[in-house]
Amino acid sequence: MEAGRRSVSGWTVANVVVVLYAMVPVLWIASLSFKDPSTFTDGSFIPRKWTLGNYAGIFTNADFVRGLVNSIGIGLISTFVAIVFGTMAAYAVARLTFPGKRLLIGVSLLIAMFPQISLVSPLFQIERALGLFNTWAGLILPYITFALPLTIYTLSAFFREIPWELEKAAKMDGATPFQAFWQVIVPLAAPGMVTTAILAFIFCWNDFLFAISLTSSNAARTAPATISFFTGSTQFEDPTGSISAAAVVITIPIVIFVLFFQRRIVAGLTSGAVKG
Amino acid sequence: MNRGKGRALTEGQRAERRLGLWLCAPAAIVMVVVTGWPIVYSVLLSLQRYDLRFPEDKAWIGLSNYATVLTSEVWWNAFWVTLLITVVSVAIELVLGMLLAFAMYRAIVGRGLIRTVVLIPYGIVTVAAAYGWKYAWTPGTGWLAGLLPEGSAPLTERGPAIAIIILAEVWKTTPFMALLLMAGLAVVPEELMRAASVDGATLWQRFTRVTLPLMKPAILVALLFRTLDAFRIFDNIYVLTNGSQGTGSVSISAYHNLIGGLNLGIGSTMSVLILVTVAIIAVVFILGFGTAAPGSER
């Protein structure tokens, strides 16, 4: 009984430490984003004078709004293509015997570990020659490429767990092959695909190196890259407020994913990376 | 499953092979086209004098770009800084990640809560978090800078700036390390731990004699992933110091030569050298430590 109570309070301490570790840096940037510009330099963790002005400022900034649109559009398209191609490949890896399977796994592993900077110089040149530089497609291509290894690993791990005999059983009970696929296999595979899509989207949403190297204007520049170009509305204005408000805005989707899909994200990260 | 080797393929097996290849084709083609040709092209670029500001001077110059880079103090400084950041941050992450993994795996109370909050650093946009750290350490503005003696500006001094870069990197990536290690913890059989405990093993003995050896494969995979990832560090440094005061990594150097300097020859040479270094690290892990390449089917 005594030991039980001690371990409960032990865990409470551990939880508090972990929560502080994870949240304090995030709360700090949020606090900064609510500070009135006159109080930026007070060094206080909690705003002394609250304002929504920084948010009003960035949402009237055409570059930032355009950056958000680019981020969402490029992220969704890249994720969708990566999931479609990745699902096909992962199904083959998990279920079929064919030559070149090990090669495919090897190539995806190489790409997963590839230093992105090594692609930046050649892609910069190639995309300028092909007219892909500073376009959505110019970012979507590398994003799909780097999201694919992740989708193939994670999905093939999920697919290995699916009891495929159910499909046969459904057919024996008189289901058509399509019914067996749609009503039996798809519901079993969907959670894994949702998880994988979230991980792929987070990857695209997060990218900075390609976004600043392969764009030159707000035509394709994504939000993280746009933020790094913030200078304040005039030369003498401090961009601190706009940058922190923008940082909070691009963090919101991540917080939503984490709150709603915590279990799935943990399962996806651990199964894909370790079991392969 | 009976896998007909060679000649004696049944119709069914042949159909399966064909389907497998067709299903993999789109993914394989995209991956090879977007990485394969650029790699070859960057090797070709690295053998040329090619500065976009002086395109008429373009010429094949053999390995002389490599000589330029490998004798440049700036490159070696960036290389050692990158290596320092990689080794120190991965070492700290391993220790913190192990503690966090235990907390997440064993927690009786609030397991869901801590598993949720640790995903925030993992998922947050690196650039967004980096600005948070930058302002936190900016004199006057930051809550952390206020804790330092009057007049210090840590981000403008080399040592403190590198320490802050490591802090930002560790904060962001420890949760990922912890999740990989937690998956490794799951392979340690509960009965074994109980048996060791009955035999009088202390907590520390159970950890070093039972848990660690069983977790070795998971630890090595986590180290491999994180080492290669840390070696390509870019976003944090770009925001925190942009490589000033000798705090740039190799990725920052290559980026500055390419986008700032528009020097494709030198930029590509650095890209190739980074690729070679990463390959060496991976080979050392896989051959030297016997890390199972993730994805190889055991």
Protein architecture, described:
The complex is a heterodimer of chains A (276) and B (298). With 276 residues, chain A is an all-alpha fold. Chain A folds into two domains: 1-51, no CATH class; 57-275, MetI-like (MetI-like fold, Orthogonal Bundle), CATH 1.10.3720. In chain A, 76% of the residues lie in helices and 0% in strands. Chain A is built from eleven helices and no strands. The longest helix of chain A is centred in the C-terminal third of the chain and has 36 residues, at 240-275. The radius of gyration of chain A is 23 Å and the shape is globular. The model of chain A has no long low-confidence stretch (mean pLDDT 88). Chain B is an all-alpha fold. Chain B has a domain at 81-251: MetI-like fold (Orthogonal Bundle), CATH 1.10.3720. Chain B is 70% helix and 1% strand. Chain B has a two-stranded antiparallel sheet with strand order 1-2. In chain B, helix 9 runs antiparallel to helix 12. The model of chain B is unreliable at 1-5 (pLDDT under 50). Chains A and B meet through helix 1, helix 3, helix 4, helix 5 and helix 6 of A and helix 1, helix 4, helix 5, helix 6 and helix 7 of B.
Secondary structure elements and pairings:
The complex is a heterodimer of chains A (276) and B (298).
Chain A (H helix, E strand, L loop, with lengths): L1 H32 L19 H7 L2 H34 L5 H12 L4 H14 L5 H26 L3 H8 L4 H30 L2 H5 L9 H6 L11 H36 L1
Chain B lengths: L10 H36 L1 E2 L9 E2 L3 H7 L2 H34 L4 H7 L1 H5 L2 H11 L21 H28 L4 H9 L4 H29 L3 H6 L9 H11 L3 H25 L10
Antiparallel strand pairs in B: 1-2
